[in-house]
Design a protein that fits this description.
The chain is an alpha/beta fold. It has two domains: 141 residues, Glycerate kinase, domain 1 (Rossmann fold); 219 residues, Glycerate kinase, domain 2 (Alpha-Beta Complex), CATH 3.90.1510. It has 13 helices and 13 strands. It has a six-stranded mixed sheet, with helices on both faces. Helix 1 packs across helix 13. The two termini are 12 Å apart. GO terms for molecular function: glycerate kinase activity. This is Glycerate kinase. Keywords: Kinase, Transferase. Pfam families: Gly_kinase. Its EC number is 2.7.1.31.
Length: 379
């Protein structure tokens, strides 16, 4: 019997690799002779680099970069030497988790550090760079990242603009003379599921600005600033991408990646599934087990169990989900390739207890699933 174990991480508890291992241990108690294939997954958010490196035997690299508020941070990124592919989580350099809630500043935070990570990937010889752009603390339209790559954003006095989205109101001229020429030889992909445009009521500032510390007045100012930035970019690049789906992702980094780097957007879980070879693994399997911390209606918006179920559905392989919590609307996934779903807790317990005991609970639930499956199969 061949079983594919392809979960996401359980936030604040276990990595995707740790989750897969615990499930495998539980299954092995009942099916000691089964072929258990651990395939850690992610959807382009937190843990994407770890999942890809675990599945692909990649190399974890570290780089000192400028954080979202200008303080130096150590950011991790992944390197797949065989394919000359770099895997970058922008949250490592420009993420909300790097900023204390009381220090969040959507007006002056910068993606400069993300640009520095891209530069490090270029130095390593990357031919393909995948940017996972969830969890940003920024709203600068990707301006900081482009500055790190050589784009000059100048004011009326031909002086470089300071960091942050609000400073873009003073933009007078864009120069590409110092843009890193290596960028033209690299294929860029954005792993994201955000479809928002750059500006307007559904844009980066209006939808995501408040969680990054922007007041209603600042949201309006930032929206105008990003629009001004887009006007200048359209003039210089002869291509206006501000209204394209995804341009508003990560505070507008999606816009800059499209406009300056020619990046292609793909669902995060689709990118990870390709890198880890999920399609080949599932072919010929008897069962797929996936999971995440919270399994609910939001899972339909491109989260890991949704992506894994789509792959399994193509091959006619049944899918079981193990989740920390079964939330509202999780039953909708039964129409999208999921056959059954189980929650971890076996009785009343606090969130803290569930997190601390996740390995044990995963082993128990996996063993229970194996017993029920064996009973149903009559063996």
């Amino acid at each position: 019997m061949k079983i594919i174990i392809a979960p996401d991480s359980f936030k604040d508890s276990l990595s995707a690799a740790g989750t897969a291992q615990a499930i495998a241990e539980g299954l092995a108690q009942v099916w000691p002779d089964a072929q258990l294939v651990e395939c850690p997954m992610a959807d382009g958010g937190e843990g994407t680099v770890d999942a890809v490196l675990a599945a692909c035997n990649g190399q974890l690299r570290r780089q000192l970069v400028q954080g979202p508020l200008g303080v130096t941070v150590e950011a991790r990124w992944g390197w797949l030497a065989d394919s000359h592919t770099a895997m970058i989580e922008m949250a490592e350099a420009s993420g909300l988790q790097l900023v204390a809630p009381e220090q969040r500043d959507a007006c002056s935070s910068t993606t400069y550090g993300t640009g520095e990570l891209i530069r490090a990937a270029l130095d390593a010889g990357a031919q393909r760079i995948i940017l996972a752009i969830g969890g940003s603390a920024t709203n600068d339209g990707g301006a900081g990242a482009m500055q790190a790559l050589g784009v000059q954003l100048l004011d009326a006095a031909s002086q470089p603009l300071p960091p942050g989205g609000l400073a873009l109101t003073r933009l007078s001229h864009i120069s590409l003379e110092s843009l890193d020429p290596r960028l033209a030889q690299v294929r860029f992909e954005i792993a994201a599921d955000v479809n928002n445009p750059l500006c307007g009521p559904h844009g980066a500032s209006a939808i995501f600005g408040p969680q990054k510390g922007a007041s209603p007045e600042q949201v309006a100012q930032l929206d105008a600033a990003l629009g001004h930035f887009a006007d200048h970019c359209a003039q210089v690049l002869a291509n206006d991408v501000r209204d394209q789906p995804g341009s508003g992702a990560a505070g507008g980094l999606g816009f800059a990646a499209k406009a300056f780097l020619g990046a292609r957007f793909r669902p995060g879980v689709e990118v990870v599934a390709e890198l880890v070879g999920l399609d080949d693994a599932v072919r010929g399997a008897d069962l797929v087990i996936t999971g995440e911390g919270r399994f609910d209606a939001q899972t339909l918006r491109g989260k890991t169990p949704f992506g894994v179920a789509r792959v399994a559905q193509r091959h006619g392989v049944p899918v079981i989900v193990i989740a920390g919590i079964l939330g509202d609307g999780y039953e909708q996934m039964y129409a999208h390739g999921v056959d059954a779903a189980f929650a971890l807790p076996s009785g009343p317990m606090s969130l803290e207890q569930a997190c601390s005991e996740a390995p044990r609970l995963l082993r128990e639930r996996a063993a229970d699933i194996a017993r029920v499956w064996r009973l149903a199969a009559g063996r």
